[in-house]
Amino acid sequence: LCTEDGKKKVLSDNPPMPSKSATEVKGKHKRSNKQGEPRKVLYSMTHVQGYKVKKINAPILEAIFKKHGDIASDCVVKTASMREFILEVVCEVVKRIQTNDVATIVSDMEEIVMQVLDAEATNMNVAWLRAHLEAIQKRNVAQKKSTLIVKMKANTTLVKRAAKMDLEDRRMELRTAQERFDKAEKCVKVLDLVEMKLNDNFVESEAQRDSWPEQPIL
């Protein structure tokens, strides 16, 4: 291939190498991605009676304060941020309970109870929450018992149905056997009568024979 000035231009089959600056930028970009930390999720915050909490938990905390008062007033933790963290945990527990997803609550019950006990250890007033969790546990136990009883009733119904069918078969067998018994008994009674009649006839025949003494023919 010739250029406009007539000089030959050699074409290479290999692709052009990137410039040093481009390589450096690309390398820095990779290192930046590789060493980059996950972006933190920032929550919008607000204040509820002087406590700084997530805005999403504010309505729950307000409802708690309205019903139970300032549950953190006697908390032994003096650091405001720590008290607020514990309040956030309490709000999260209440939020999980409000979902009414009993299966999930029960499966996470151990973790939830530990969170409440940790809050209670700081003298946070969460006795009402612990009582609610105990009620959920009791309802769950009662529900399991009720479910077990329902299954047992269903099994009992099936077994009873089979037993009734077996009883009916036995009743039919008994009825057939009774009919055979009655028939055999009747047959025996008839044979008894025949035997008695034969005995009477035999006695009568013997008596008649004895009443006719043998006479000489001549």
UniProtKB/TrEMBL annotation:
Pfam families recorded: PEARLI-4 (PF05278)
Residue ranges with Basic and acidic residues bias: 1-11
InterPro entries, sorted: PLipase-like
Record region (Disordered): 1-39
This protein's name: Phospholipase-like protein
